[in-house]
Amino acid sequence: MAIEWVDTHCHLNDSQRFPDPDRAIAEAADAGVTRLMVVGIDLHWSRKAVELADRHEGVFAVVGHHPTSKGFRDEHLKVYEEWFKHPKVVALGEIGLDYHWDMTTPEEQDGWLRAQLELAKSLGAPVIFHCREAYDALIARLDGYAHGPLDFHCFAGSFTQAEALGLHHYFGVDGPLTYPKAGDLREIIALLPKERILLETDAPWLPPVPYRGKLNHPAYLPLIGEALAQIWGVSVEEVARQTSANAEACFPKLAGVGGG
Ligand SMILES: [Zn+2]
Q1: How far is the CA of 75 from the centre of ligand 1 (A)?
Q2: Res. 258: pLDDT tops 50
Q3: Using CA of residue 243, residue 250, residue 218, residue 214, what is the dihedral sign?
């Protein structure tokens, strides 16, 4: 049986960088990446994610408002709630905290995060978090949030922070796993439970070796899988099987709706 992968995080809804998403989806399928999750960062990008999911069997959508996107309004929650009824809208995201950039204030970000977490709780929706230079604040915000499953996309915290977030949650691994200088990241990922690791490209960002400096594509996901196979000391097939099972466990709507 051919190897099949799930890219749990990409932005093919970025029409500026992906003017022809259909082609990127076809190339991904040729590389064995038969299921893709296209993630929103605001109302506009979330709508485009849902449209792509409608048009392509292997595409699923994630809807929500990113901490550095301006223009969140409470009325948007109703729209995200409506979209989540769609069988191929698998999670709310990407939401969270980002203290690296200053387009939005920490107070704004926290308000949006709380509102969207309340919505996720009421819907029983999985959540995809974006977190940059703000893990301790996110840990504090999630204290007592017992709903789930939660995916910490592009995880860049310490192992202690992963433990504080909860090792029963999920951790997204991207292109940096292949970077020569990412020894610390590889050590942390090696310590996390295998059944909690999700593979993602975050395309067009974070291209793996040997595509650094270029546009990232979902078709490059197997390169990250190969790096993970080395860390785990297992075959690439086993990595594809385990991480696909992990994705279905974290995002139940992925299961049963076709791949390629
Ligand atoms: Zn993203």
Answers
A1: 23
A2: no
A3: negative
